[in-house]
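Interim report, section 4.2 (structural modelling).
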Amino acid sequence: MPFYAAPIVRLLEELERLPGIGPKSAQRLAFHILRADEQSAGRLADAIVDVKRSIHFCAQCFNFAEDDLCEICSDSKRDASIVCVVEEPRDVVAIERTGEFRGLYHVLQGAISPIDGIGPEQLRVRELVDRIGKGGIDELIVATDPNVEGETTALYVARLAKPLGVRVTRIASGLPVGGDLEYADEVTLGRALEARREM
Amino acid sequence: MLISKLEFRGVRNYDHFLVEPDSHLTILVGPNAVGKTNVIEAIQLLTTNRSFRNPQWVDVVKWDASEANLRMTLDDDGVLTIFEMVITLENKRSYKFNGLTKRGFSNIPKVLPSVVFTPDDLLLAKGPAENRRKAIDDLGERLSKTYGSIKRDYTRTIRQRNAALKENQTHKATLQALDEQLISIGSSLCLHRRRLLQRMSPITTSIYGTLATGEVLDIQYESRALGDIPFTEKLRIEDIQIAMFSTLQIRRNEEAARKTTLVGPHRDDVIFKINGRDARSFASQGQQRTIALAWKCAEVRIIQEIARQTPVLLLDDVMSELDSTRREALTTLVKDGVQTIVTTTNTGYFAPDLLAQAKIIEIPGRG
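Predicted structure of the assembly:
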């Protein structure tokens, strides 16, 4: 791109790597940053660096956390006997928004998908089994996405957890078929949580 | 509901194409390679969001156009609605209903169903089993969103399971979960197919009977797991699940060796029998055509019955493939009030009385 000075080209390239950002959006963002004063550009850069430095995975549930344990896992008021199993940290946010769930989470960090070479070993499944092994968990609510990969993962988790003596339920009705949990609205998710079924 | 106006810009070979179809019969006539089929494809896109050509969407855009714009005015007892589809060079489709942008074709509140008949469909009876599975599944997807979502989930399950079978050492436990998925979604697809075939079968066979006197057509659903259970026997989903489960156990070693899923509705077939003889091996050219024709006419009837809407019938150059008795069957549909759009190289295939009522549109050759 000969139209821009080298530093702008570099910025555009980096922005275009972001999900949902094409050449035009990248250009718009870059011009916004160029117009802004140095302070706010610095704040943006710091925020990006800071989030990478300070955020890691929670040692217990593998959600994003600032400390060793995430805010949910370290909250003593939450019910540690019920664990909701989800695919991604964003699903935790979606379920938290319903306000219907007071238990803890376990983030698998994906779903089983042999096409993409993702099996249980690539997910936080062994960590879930270890967690159950430590005791204190009575019920797993499996809230993986209601698509083929999510269902397969749910069936896999159920097969694994049931012999360990925990009740395994699956969130049910109300979820749009083939949809991502992330896009479901609060009402739908709340109802789905209430109507969870035995697996 | 009828199509009262069609307008395309930058579609295939057309810079601009405008037609106001007749409420009964519209005949697009012109020499070969002038873009008659492109019109049929565009209408199929507007009514079903798919094309029998299975193109890359960008291929629908004219080579020198920046996008393809397809626009259709529907007349539902005097109430007009406008549906618009735009296909971009980035292979994306977007939809507008009465000027409002809609996310996805499934969010369009009013859709006119269609039945398309092309020369490829003549291979229904004797072609590969895939043609017959596709014929019934395509119909199911047009009639029910549930059918469509089961079909999509099933295809995805098969892909995942085949991938797992290829790496079956690492994916042994995953395979068990996928077996369960295969049985649960597969049995559901199997049941849906059988139910739809059960309704298609008497209509198709009765139309066949009127076209070929003295011949009896019989339709069966052939499934390795289930065997040939006649439609009269009521099947519960549990029965199918049990049958699939035991077939899966029997063929487990073979699946492991061939590293592909061998059990399930993706291996089933629809069998046409004429006077008890399997059409796959015994049907003559004429009989094959009659089966295909009877099936398409039955599609029109079943959409009327289930969707309570009369579909638009799109016939792409099939008149030349049919003799006069069979052409008569198609024109009966026209007389019954089915809006029909036909392409042909020669209007001589149509009876004079029909031709007198039809709207004939000449598509000129190039240059």
